[in-house]
Amino acid sequence: MKRNLLSRWLLLGEWQAHRLQIVVAVIAIALGIAMGFSIHLINTAAVNEFSAAVKSLSGQSDLQVRATQPTFDEMLYPVLAQREGVAVASPVLEIQAAVPGRPEDDRHNTLKILGIDVYRAVAMTPDLVGVPADDRAFDMLSADAIFLSPAAMEWLEVKQGDQLPLRLGTQTVTLRVAGGLTRAHAGQRIAVMDIGAAQWHFDHVGVLSRIDLKLKQGIHHGTFKAALEKELPAQYVVTETADQEMRVHNMSRAYRINLNVLGLVALFTGTFLVFSTQVLSTLRRRPQFALLRVLGLTRNQILRQILRESSLLGIVGSLLGLGLGYALAATALHVFGGELGGGFFPEIKPSIQLSPLAAVLFFVLGVSVTLLGSLMPAWEAARAHPAPALKSGSEDTALAGLRTPWPALVCVTLAVVLTQLPPVAELPLFGYFAVALLLIGGIAWMPSMAAWFFSGLFRVCNRLTAGALATLALARLANAPQQAAIALGGVLASFSLMVAMAIMVASFRLSIEDWLTHILPADVYVRTEVRQDAIGFTPQEQQAIAATAGIERIDLIRSLQITLDPARPTVTLIARPIDQADPGNTVPMTDDALVPAEIPRDAIPIWVSEAMVDLYDYQVGKRVVLPLSDGRQDYVVAGVWRDYGRQFGAIQMQLSDYQKISGELHVNETALWLQTGVTPEQVMAALKALPFGESLTFWQPNEIRAISLKIFDRSFAVTYLLELIAVGVGLLGVAASFSAQALRRIKEFGMLRHIGVTRGQIYRMLALEGGLLAGFGILIGFLLGGSISLILIYIVNPQSFHWTMQLHLPWPWLMIMALAMLLAAALTALLAGRQAVSGSVIRAVKEDW
């Protein structure tokens, strides 16, 4: 009982005497947990909501048969419907139709239409069966009827009985809203109509998108699936609902994990802040602990006391962080939806689903990092001998172990080794560990580097006969480098990470700007309202566009999605005119490419993005097979190009080769070069006058670049916020550390006052110390952050998103950050020392009488 009373007395006494340090440590832990927990909640809600939407579209089907291309011949349907073991087969046609009149800046201005056989869908996907009016029971079979989900009705601002114009290609179809989909998934914008009517209206006669299969009882799904895959031609894939969910998960996995890692940056910074707070606390209480040892407390009791105090910090900070994280996640989902700028989960409105297990894990994480940050100072305080610890000036002896460079050298060496290791499950796990080890090693090296730097600077200033204040400030920093390094630990961690992220983001943005300039050489781009339109422009419409006055050259482009691996997202195939002798004129090539003489005559050349090399091993010179035709046709990888628009892979080939193989003559997009003296506005006005001109959308390169960079900035908005929070936590740590050190230097300030140094001079000396210390930290932060940026640019990003970028240093922004950090640290040191200097001079030195 007495020991518990003593423990509480020590705890309350410490917290009451040094409220600022305690509050700062709690804030650091709370912010770190809040950022990580909120991002986890948002990502989990978005993935779960999107998976639930996929399940609602799959209904009660056991298997789904799709093609590697968006559609396939409907003659497969009767074959599967009559196959042994199939109870019900339900054909489905999926169409993405544009909604005329929607704002051009609406990123998701298409409506997903499902054509179904209502009699089959009742047994397979009942949620997709529309509810007609009571007096029109057969509207589900009507050729002009369409049924909308509640979210679609709200988005389109229509009601039952209204006329709804929809557009695919250059044709506009007007349908009647015959009812709703009352059991559609909440927030899902979809429409349903009779499959025959959908095929006829949208020029998809004779094709399907998928066939849902429900097997008879007793049929083993795995065996049936394997047998069906062997029987079907290579251009068909057989999937289960779980496969669809895995594809959804894989689509955003790298983006979500990188966000989670960024979310823990503040927590990582908070760990060093807790470490510095606990080190300074144990140093200040070193005589107190020594006296307790003399009075009978054991080393283990001292150790448990310090760890108990730290665990309470972690508990309070983690609980506050969980509450704040939940509030941030709820606010972000309400304002921004579930995308967080990534664009992986459009058109969904997820709601927060609090997972007790996740909350417990983040709580344990917060408490663990707090204990980890206090373990070293607690161990040192417990093992200290009472007699030396009772003497004044024993603090530097306690910190002497921090000047050992070997732990830092081991961390840095191990970080370098980890950068050479491959990704794990297509994630740069070793890259993340390398960044963490590099930070730990750099901070651990600070005491020895600070001693070397400030000692050398002190000798230089002595030779130059610097002023008294500068000499005092440098003498303090040179003779107590460990304490200086401790004060700077949190700032170094946050500033170096901010430098690394600033360099990475600037390099990425500049690379995207150069890439957009390369891939947008034309003056005007023309397409229909659906970007990857299944219909696009017919040959006659292509000729009409080409014959428009003022056009000097026209390139036709066809793009579509193909499936190479059912477990992965689809790959974009782009067919366009390419200069085979010099593909770099059309495609932003890397250095790896074949010359025309090296391309086999019996293979068609294709140019693949960097993601294809990582995900599908499409190395230059490799012969591959693409699911573009019924017969076998070999393709050869003729080169690799840089693509920032399609993370999961893209393939480019000659338009003439694609048309010869597929027989498809429609195109999605046209690139126009104008004659000299002709303005884009003149050509666009002439194209608008064509019979199908109302269905055209026009884009100029500057507009595309502006929109792309806007999307880029929105995607990295969360990154900027996390960087600022991490730096804010670091500056709070500087305030707490300088405040604690200033209180320990009351005697020193009193002696200086006795020998004639004024308060103003002491203030200037403290500001100079803070500025010098921050300047040294900024210098090391630049070096450390630059090294981390190289890992992010050349390891983490290629392994996460499968693209490379060019290095760019944003010097103006880096200088602004450095200057702001320098001024903030100097001001913080000055304000922290005012309390220590404001007391009586006599009382400050009374203990030495």
Structure description:
- There is one protein chain.
- This protein is of the alpha+beta class and 849 residues long.
- Helices cover 56% and strands 15% of the residues.
- The protein has four domains: 203 residues, no CATH class; 177 residues, no CATH class; 275 residues, no CATH class; 176 residues, no CATH class.
- Strand 14 and strand 15 form a beta hairpin.
- Helix 2 runs antiparallel to helix 8.
pLDDT < 50 runs, ≥5 residues: none
Overall number of structural domains: 4
- Report the oligomer: single chain
In total, the number of strands is 22
Q: What do the pLDDT scores average to?
A: 83
Helix/strand-derived category reads alpha+beta
Principal-axis shape = elongated
Largest sheet: 10 strands, mixed
Instruction: Indicate the radius of gyration in whole angstroms.
Output: 33 Å
Individual helix count: 29
Distance separating the two termini:
39 Å
Q: Give the DSSP E fraction (strand runs of 2 or more residues).
A: 5-15%
Helical residue percent band:
55-70%
Write the layout of secondary structure elements.
Layout (H helix, E strand, L loop, with lengths): L1 H16 L1 H40 L4 E5 L4 E2 L2 H6 L4 E13 L11 E7 L1 H7 L6 E2 L12 E4 L1 H7 L6 E6 L2 E10 L9 E5 H7 L5 E2 L1 E6 L5 H11 L4 E4 L1 H23 L1 H20 L1 H9 L4 H38 L19 H28 L2 H5 L4 H4 L7 H13 L10 H16 L1 H18 L4 H12 L1 H39 L4 E5 L10 H8 L4 E12 L8 E6 L12 E5 L10 E6 H7 L6 E3 L8 E8 L8 E5 H8 L6 E6 L5 H9 L7 E4 L1 H15 L1 H28 L1 H9 L4 H43 L9 H27 L3 H5 L4
Parallel strand pairs: 4-9, 6-8, 15-20, 17-19
Antiparallel strand pairs: 1-11, 1-12, 2-10, 3-4, 3-11, 5-8, 6-9, 7-8, 13-21, 13-22, 14-15, 14-21, 16-19, 17-20, 18-19
